[in-house]
């Protein structure tokens, strides 16, 4: 039996999805990446349509795609609303204007796909209707034997809302020697190359657009698991990711979004067990300690970004509280987080790899 869904009021149940996949690439001022990576995507579509959804770029992205890739379905969005809002608009257009799809895959514009990247993931999705989100293995484009920062081989969340991956824990990146070639259930699948069931995406209201960018896919994965769905990583599919194509890791805005959105996600989704505020206060302390690492290397703007992130979280608490109540009313399944602190495991106990931390 399919899990019960929290259905948004504007979702039209009579929409009938065709049995296919839509490959949808969100772009903002990424014309060089489109020139470099879009040909590889088009060479490995297995006959599925490719969309480029442009978020009001100010470079030559739109004219470039129109002139060089007439087979691409170009969606011009009215403004740049980040990853979350941009994909919400784009996938609604795919659904209403192009007839929709059974599955979506959302590769970043700086993703290099490989031959056969689609088939293993689609097979996994088709064989298990409870899987609503999935990712391939993500390796670094520049250091091709290393698993990459944005998702690696599938992600997890610890009891304080900090994230880590199979193959990447904080600044430790494992060499890929086949240790993650299996397919298994994980907590979150990366937005760098996210496969999803289209009906689940639309029925759950898509991404939380208030996130703008970063962790919106983790928040969505958490929400769909609360409705009884599963998230998986497929080790038989591999793509390569440049990373930081739109917002470089050195940009303080990235620090701000990561810290703020982590708190948004934790507050919205944490179980109703009475321990929420003690965890929030502990996060405040740990986030403050992490700012000392930025101070150590003279990155004062990142320290300011962490402070701004906390103030933004407190300012949004009334809205987050309403979201929390709504999600609790819809929940059908308890979701388990990693029961220990990844910060303590990594920095105090010196456990640097997923196997050392998770045991499998």
Q: Layout of helices and strands, plus pairs?
A:
Elements: E1 21-27, H1 31-43, E2 50-54, H2 61-68, E3 73-76, H3 82-97, E4 103-107, E5 111-112, H4 119-127, E6 131-140, E7 155-157, E8 163-165, E9 168-169, E10 172-173, E11 183-186, E12 193-197, H5 198-203, H6 216-226, E13 230-241, H7 252-269, H8 276-296, H9 300-315, H10 317-330, H11 342-348, H12 354-358
Helix pairs in contact: 1-2, 6-7, 7-8, 7-9, 7-10, 8-9
GO molecular function: glycosyltransferase activity
Pfam family, one: Glycos_transf_2
Organism: Spirosoma endophyticum
Task: Describe this entry's structure for a reader.
The chain has two domains: 21-241, Alpha-Beta Complex (Spore Coat Polysaccharide Biosynthesis Protein SpsA, Chain A); 252-358, no CATH class. 40% of the residues lie in helices and 18% in strands. It has 360 residues and is α/β, with parallel strands linked by helices. It has twelve helices and 13 strands.
């Amino acid at each position: 039996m399919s899990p019960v869904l929290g259905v948004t009021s504007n979702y039209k149940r009579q929409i009938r999805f065709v049995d296919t996949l839509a490959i949808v690439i969100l772009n903002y001022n990424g014309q060089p990446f489109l020139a470099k990576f879009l040909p590889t995507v088009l060479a490995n579509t297995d006959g599925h349509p490719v969309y480029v959804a442009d978020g009001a770029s100010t470079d030559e992205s739109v004219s470039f795609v129109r002139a060089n890739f007439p087979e691409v379905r170009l969606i011009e969005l009215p403004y740049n609303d980040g990853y979350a809002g941009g994909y919400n608009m784009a996938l609604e257009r795919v659904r209403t204007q192009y007839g929709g799809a059974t599955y979506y895959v959302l590769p970043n514009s700086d993703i290099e796909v490989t031959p056969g990247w689609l088939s293993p993931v689609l097979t996994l999705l088709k064989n298990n209707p409870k899987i609503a989100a999935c990712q391939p293995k993500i390796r670094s484009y520049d250091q091709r034997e290393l698993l990459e920062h944005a998702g690696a081989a599938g992600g997890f969340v610890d009891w304080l809302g900090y994230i880590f991956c199979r193959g990447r824990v904080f600044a430790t990146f494992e060499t890929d020697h086949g240790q993650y070639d299996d397919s298994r259930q994980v907590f979150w699948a990366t937005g760098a190359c996210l496969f999803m069931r289209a009906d689940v995406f639309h029925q759950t209201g898509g991404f939380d657009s208030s996130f703008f960018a970063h962790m919106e896919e983790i928040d969505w994965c958490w929400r769909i698991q609360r409705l009884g769905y599963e998230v998986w990583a497929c080790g038989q599919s591999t793509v390569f990711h440049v990373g930081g194509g739109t917002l470089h890791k050195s940009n303080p805005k990235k620090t701000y979004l990561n810290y703020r959105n982590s708190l948004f996600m934790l507050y919205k989704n944490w179980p109703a067990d009475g321990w929420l505020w003690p965890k929030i206060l502990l996060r405040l302390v740990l986030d403050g300690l992490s700012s000392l690492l930025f101070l150590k290397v003279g990155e004062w703007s990142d320290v300011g970004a962490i402070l701004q992130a906390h103030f933004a979280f407190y300012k949004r608490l009334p809205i987050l509280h309403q979201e929390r109540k709504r999600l609790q009313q819809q929940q059908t399944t308890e979701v388990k987080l990693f029961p220990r602190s990844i910060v303590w495991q990594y920095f105090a106990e010196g456990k640097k790899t997923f196997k050392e931390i998770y045991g499998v």
